[in-house]
Amino acid sequence: MFSQALGAVALAVSCLVSVSTAITYSPVQPPSYPLAVRSPYLSAWIPGSEAASLSSNNAQFWAGNKLTWSVIARVNGSTYNLFGVASPPEGTTSATVTEATYTSTHSTFVVTAGSRQFTLDFFSPVSPKNYLRQSLPFSYLTVTLAAGDSSSVQIYSDIDSKWTGQTSDSTWSHTTSGSASVFQISGVGAATYAQNSDGQALWGSAVYATSGTSLSTQSGPISTVRKQFVNNGTLSDSYADWTPGGVVAFSHNLGTTADETAVTFAIGHVREESINYLGAAQTGYYRATYKETPAAVAYFLEDYDDANTESTKLDDLVQSTGISSYGTNYSDILALSVRQTYGGIEITIPNESLDTSDTRAFIKEISSDGNINTVDVIYATFPIFYILSPEYLKLLLAPIFDYMATSAYTKNYAVHEIGANYPNATGHPADGEEMPIEESGNVIFLAYAYQKATGNTDFANTYAAQLKTYATYLQDNGLYPAAQLSLNDALGALANQTNLAIKAAVGLATYGALIGDASYTTVGKEWGDKIWTDHLGTDANGTRFLIQYGITPWFLVYNHYPDLLFGLDAFPDEAYNATTNFYPTVRETAGVPLDGSLGWGQTNWQSFAAATVSGDARDIFISDLHAYMSNGLNSAPFSDRYWVEASGSYSAGESYSFRARPTLGSHFALAALSGANTWSS
Ligand SMILES: *[C@@H]1O[C@H](CO)[C@@H](O)[C@H](O)[C@H]1NC(C)=O
Ligand SMILES: *[C@@H]1O[C@H](CO)[C@@H](O)[C@H](O)[C@H]1NC(C)=O
Ligand SMILES: *[C@@H]1O[C@H](CO)[C@@H](O)[C@H](O)[C@H]1NC(C)=O
Ligand SMILES: *[C@@H]1O[C@H](CO)[C@@H](O)[C@H](O)[C@H]1NC(C)=O
Ligand SMILES: *[C@@H]1O[C@H](CO)[C@@H](O)[C@H](O)[C@H]1NC(C)=O
Ligand SMILES: *[C@@H]1O[C@H](CO)[C@@H](O)[C@H](O)[C@H]1NC(C)=O
Ligand SMILES: *[C@@H]1O[C@H](CO)[C@@H](O)[C@H](O)[C@H]1NC(C)=O
Ligand SMILES: *[C@@H]1O[C@H](CO)[C@@H](O)[C@H](O)[C@H]1NC(C)=O
């Protein structure tokens, strides 16, 4: 009897387990799904491991702090929690998640609630060449009721002031603009350009909006507002004052319908003064057209069909580019990298003139230190721009070159970044990091990537004198680098760093191509021969590159990637063949580390290296990256640094410190070899 009862319990438990895990992940289960990822301050995610229990798990800001964002549906009077209801109201049921999918621009979850099925489509547009669409700091959530029986259905959604970075003192308001119903929530008393400890913007407003014919709205304490929906399906259209934990909410009454029906919400975070560029405010590009937030979000809602059509085209391009470059493992990686990369960037114009002929772009070094327009971060990211939006290289570089031309900057080499703390692009601090060869080489690569991909010589012409200064710095200092930091600043300042000398050699060859002066190209080749053929930067037998001249361990060099991409031939084929043979011999459990003394690797530089090798070496770089991305050990927004072997309490394949960095554009390095500027829309 007793054992039979136990058996029955075990059976019941296994049924429950099989129900809750009956979820299909397509193409794989990523560490974290982007939900609303459009700017450094609109960056909401859900860990891959929480997708199966979406109904009771909260969205998270990139830093991991929780955000209130729920979807609840009534189906013929019964209430189902579809998403983000951590404390389910009495009498409600959790919906069952059956499918979780990501593409370059959408994260989609299919859930069953009673007799009906819903799809939650979290869609963050990436519009590489449409600055208006790209700059709108909003993201879509479309809830689609699948065709089914003729039950009566209402769909509810709310957010709270956690989206403002401040939960202690906020205000909210409701307004309409055209057909859009718009809530805004703002923190009280925050300094402009200030962040909380999680990196959220404290100034500006969180925005939640929707439009529809049978819409009701309400703001107030969370339990009051949700109870109103659960009991009635319709909200009260009344607006209580802000209270801690309170929500702003919408309910769409779809009525009694057997048809497929969809409602769309827009979530966002707006800052009129978005970036402080050298003491003057920049604002979002979209403000040239839509000065007021309600009009901007109303336009965003109206733009849904066009944005969605574009997203399908972009998803297809990324998918086909990935597959033709290296199969579906590679396209899975690329698709997950797109929103994270563009979501670290903002497109701006001067707040005062709103002049769109004076457009700039700013990128945040999310999670690693918050620097703004870090040159080596742009270098890591550039392959995606090379393919999808080469103009971004100019938009990101121009603010750096303009700053370097001011009297505040007196160095004869390129700067590391233009401010320690995004969004304050107020200049490189006196005690900031100096990476002279690193950044001088990088600005030349980036300027040429722009020129080669677009055919435009305007950047090289406008900044000719500065570019020459940085090339001269490389020529005078690059073959035997003094003890300088490289972008791998964790290694400290090392003299004669082989990878820096490679950067200088390829940088000079690139400068020759940029300005059409073969003498620089010749120097680049001579240095390439010294470093490789004469073994200055290799082991005595010439089988691998070393970290420093004559000093072990080996190093994963990636700075000759631009040599291949641009077809410069600064390094001989033997060098590429040797690394092709070598890297598979130093692969650890979960991948190739950055050098022979480290237990961790970086997906950015593994991806650059993958593009410089062939055969087995390329296979292991791509397979290991795919395995790391889908191994189920990680839950942070994609981290580009991970343990390739077990270390301390970490297992091989676990991420290490970084998260949500826009540097994932690096994953496109291999794809970029097959062509520049292939996106048009
Ligand atoms: C919904 O509820 C009504 C009233 O209880 C009932 O008549 C109807 O059959 C139900 N519809 C469905 C599809 O279950
Ligand atoms: C940016 O500068 C302002 C002062 O102008 C300061 O209040 C704010 O905290 C700074 N932001 C960051 C992220 O450091
Ligand atoms: C409940 O909803 C109906 C419409 O479906 C509305 O007429 C009524 O006022 C609501 N009751 C309350 C208490 O909100
Ligand atoms: C930005 O522009 C708005 C609208 O013209 C203005 O109210 C605000 O003062 C400006 N901010 C700054 C810092 O110039
Ligand atoms: C750099 O390498 C060269 C050639 O091996 C050597 O002469 C020089 O002393 C090294 N510089 C430093 C700072 O170690
Ligand atoms: C160099 O190659 C020779 C011949 O293959 C080998 O005996 C020697 O051990 C190698 N030296 C090093 C430092 O790898
Ligand atoms: C490099 O490897 C390829 C493929 O194995 C081979 O065809 C080529 O001859 C090699 N080139 C050199 C310079 O070793
Ligand atoms: C794809 O990646 C997985 C690891 O996620 C690996 O096991 C598999 O071999 C790879 N497939 C191909 C065709 O490289």
Gyration radius, rounded: 26 Å
Number of discrete domains: 2
Strand percentage: 15-25%
In the CATH scheme, the class of the largest domain would be: Mainly Alpha
Fraction of helical residues? 25-40%
Q: What is the strand arrangement across the widest sheet?
A: 1-9-10-11-12-20-16-15-14
Can you tag this structure with a few keywords?
681 residues, alpha+beta, Glycosyltransferase, 2 domains, 9-stranded mixed sheet, 7-stranded mixed sheet, 17 helices, globular, binds 2-acetamido-2-deoxy-beta-D-glucopyranose
Describe the overall structure.
The chain has 17 helices and 29 strands. With 681 residues, it is α+β, with helices and mostly antiparallel strands. The protein folds into two domains: 21-308, Beta-galactosidase, Chain A, domain 5 (Distorted Sandwich); 359-672, Glycosyltransferase (Alpha/alpha barrel). Strands 1-9-10-11-12-20-16-15-14 form a nine-stranded mixed beta sheet. The protein has a seven-stranded mixed beta sheet with strand order 8-7-6-13-19-17-18. Strand 4 and strand 5 (66-67) form a beta hairpin. Helix 6 (375-388) packs parallel to helix 8 and helix 8 crosses helix 10 (464-477). The protein is globular and about 80 Å long. It binds 2-acetamido-2-deoxy-beta-D-glucopyranose (8 copies). One 2-acetamido-2-deoxy-beta-D-glucopyranose binds next to loops.
Could you provide a short overview of the structure?
The protein is of the alpha+beta class and 681 residues long.
